[in-house]
Amino acid sequence: MAPPAIYGEPKIISAEGNVTLEVVVTGVSEPEKTKWLLGDRELAESENYVFSHADEGGNRKKLTCLIKEFDKPLAGEYKAKFYSSDGENSATFTVSVGDAPEFHDKPHIVQRDGGNVIVIKVRAKSHLEMKAEWFKDDKPVKLTDRVKAVVKKDDKDKDGYQYLLEITGPIKEDEAKYKCVVKNSEGQNQQSLNLCFD
């Protein structure tokens, strides 16, 4: 027999604020003896860390470590050490901080063209590609020739963008609660404001 082997690629799955580390291994005799480490420190099960294993068939076992409510202090290099009677092996996971987009400041309204154009302006930054979605009273904004969503580089921050919702010839029906949801692959963030005319 040989020491246990890793089957396929170890995975890092991020969802709903939690991060799951997952590795499928072959030849592990006692999966419950798997040790999970962060750096050199062995982890114990706690409200932050939940360990489990499942039989995948064909002498394969899936070992998982669920990191709950993942936040910056929990980032780092994780390792799963697993054993058989013939030796040990390990899988390494580098878990970086889940960085949802961040906002620079509160959203604000700018008037142009003597009040004929109203612009709702949101400034956000992200180290990953991000996109913005606009909502009016919690329904997606219908973009038209009169209501446009504009994206431009932020002149004050190289990682930042300005997301603008431009309303030309504002009318009473434009009064609403507007929300901008900015997303990247690691999360999302949102800001909202009420637009009302005097």
From TrEMBL:
<dbReference type="InterPro" id="IPR013098">
    <property type="entry name" value="Ig_I-set"/>
</dbReference>
<feature type="domain" description="Ig-like">
    <location>
        <begin position="101"/>
        <end position="194"/>
    </location>
</feature>
<dbReference type="InterPro" id="IPR007110">
    <property type="entry name" value="Ig-like_dom"/>
</dbReference>
<dbReference type="GO" id="GO:0007156">
    <property type="term" value="P:homophilic cell adhesion via plasma membrane adhesion molecules"/>
</dbReference>
<dbReference type="InterPro" id="IPR050958">
    <property type="entry name" value="Cell_Adh-Cytoskel_Orgn"/>
</dbReference>
<dbReference type="InterPro" id="IPR036179">
    <property type="entry name" value="Ig-like_dom_sf"/>
</dbReference>
<dbReference type="GO" id="GO:0005886">
    <property type="term" value="C:plasma membrane"/>
</dbReference>
<keyword id="KW-0393">Immunoglobulin domain</keyword>
<keyword id="KW-1015">Disulfide bond</keyword>
<protein>
    <recommendedName>
        <fullName>Ig-like domain-containing protein</fullName>
    </recommendedName>
</protein>
<dbReference type="InterPro" id="IPR013783">
    <property type="entry name" value="Ig-like_fold"/>
</dbReference>
<dbReference type="Pfam" id="PF07679">
    <property type="entry name" value="I-set"/>
</dbReference>
<keyword id="KW-0732">Signal</keyword>
